[in-house]
Fold M1 family metallopeptidase.
Amino acid sequence: MNNKFLKPLLLGVGLLSVSIDAQEISKYNYQEAFKPFFYQNNGTDYRSASGKPGHNYWQNRADYNLNITLNDQKNELTGSSEIIYTNNSYDSLEFLWLQLDQNLFSKDSRGSSLIPNTGSRYGDTSSTFDGGYKIKSVTVDGKSVKYSVYDTRMQIDLAKALKAKGGKAKIRVEYSYTVPNEGADRTGVIETKNGDIYTIAQWFPRMAVYDDIHGWNTLPYLGPGEFYLEYGDVTATITAPAHHYVVGSGELLNPKEVYSSEQLKRWDKAKNSNQTVIIRSAAEVEADSRTSSQSKTWKFKIKNTRDFAWASSSSFILDAAQINLPSGKKSLAISAYPVESDGQHAWARSTEYTKASIEHYSQQWSEYPYPTAINVAGNEGGMEYPGIVFCHMNSKGEGLWGVTDHEFGHIWFPMIVGSNERVHGWMDEGFNTFINDISTKNFNQGEYFRAQSLQRMAPIFNNDNLEPVTTQPDNMRERNIGSLLYYKPGAGLKLLRENIIGEERFDKALKTYIDYWAYKHPTPEDFFRTIENVSGEELSWFWRGWFINKWKIDQAVKEVKYKNGDYKNGINITVENIGQLPMPTTVQINFVDGTSEEVKLPIEVWKRNTEWNFHVPTIKEVSTVTVDPRGAYPDADVSNNSFKMDTKEEVSNERIDIYAFLGTFSNSKIGMEIVVKLENNELVAQASNQPAFPLTYEGKRTFSFDEGGIKIIYKEDLKIFVLKQGDQEFEFTKK
């Protein structure tokens, strides 16, 4: 799911985020970081110590035959869910649990009771909507059974226990419910000038997972925690008003019955076109009827899936193009959006984005498994389902690429690798955030890519109000969800790939994990074990510090001395690990002549040391020595990252009036103000909601803050300055 409220802001988070709250940081304890026995359980028949499924691994199966009718006058769905449930476990089952996620939208649901007065993406206390399922009947193998509904869960008591190792039951539930306009940012209805768009998800009773970890997984659906589902095949028959066009997960089985002859020609053309083909144009949308007393039935099938979603509207422009897969197979990228979303800077590029995203992930990680990939414009910020995603109809340009790529990235996590999102939300959102960065770099020669260091995220990752990453989504503050489910675990994988393991070995390990656990149910420990076994690295210190605890990174240059007091004899450098979480260390030696040299220290340096002294042979005079020179780590205190040497350079004699540089400067385009002021006779700058940082005068109206890689260059009238950070430049004007 796309966390639209907590996107990684290029400016608000990145720009000037070079300092954190002045919290006391615990001293490094190498025995604690590297203590043994990280894994508390040995391998079992079900889950190997190597991270792969065990030789007797099992999971249950749920196949669905769904029939539903949409009444667009009442916004009501009426139908039945028929489930063939197969018990592959070693246990007989006396009762079954089903998930009734729509009950979240009942006024008396547990989730509704948790919505604060200030509002939430998962609901609104001022809403009068009262939804939820109306269950008409429940049968098992054709006979009525006793069932009980507890909030978003249904328990079915069986007359006879379902046999282990292959026992089957046919469950049929007849039901109806009213579709909420705002469905916790996952489903809903939005009005357009050519008809409402229905984005339909969590719409049918689904089997709860019975596994070897918890038995029945029966956590209620409260909003933040997403889904944990069994795999199977789904056939869906959807009856909608005749003027509607429907898209759904998987293959459309009856295109000849629902499209005109001309639309069918375009449909077939799109299957073999690398360019986007219009199937239903904006002109056709405007010309077609927007009401009908008749209905039309659409039939879909998707195999080996954990869910099914669909969308319906009279307002849809439809276009498509082929997706080329590594095996030589083809899939079809489809976009459905209203005329309000049309345009080359908006949804007219949606199919291009979808095709590029799917082709990249298929080549990079594993092949896309479904016959179609559908992007639907709705009122969700972004939400993912097998073969279909919902993105906001107002998204455009870079934003539309980002949300499209993110939601289709979820096909790999958790649609293919079926982790328990209700408990381990970081295992899909964080993994997906990580692969999105690589995909964006790859798309259209980096059209939307901006390389950024992890140091910019230091104020967020080191915030003491964050819970650990492994916290269940329902147990973390809503404002922390973006950081803990998306950005911090995504950054953790980036650290592994770029700084700890290396790109080649990490990619091999992640591909192996996907291969091991495709269409299965891995746990965090299965992931940890796989990465270690494939890469050959012992990483308990990293899992312990980054994911399970809230340990901070703080590396420092403690001391630099010339050997025997003469730079021609080389230098001795002492680096220190102050934070609880160690990391491989990069030290950059900058010389007076403008050249530099790097020394890389492996993680083993910190296995029995809190500081490390080493010699660098050189005959050059040194200006500064810096750890983590490119900001690869979100270091908790960058003020100790550099050590400045005394040099023979002459100090500038330029005289300036320091008071002439003071004032409040703003950039309306990015919505930021920077105040330049004196504090304790030192010139400092402070951006909106950021700690102040010191400025050092370099001459020619230029000030710098080396630790943050920032330069502030005033123009001659001193009423405007240009702020430079990395490749970014922003002009601020004095108020």
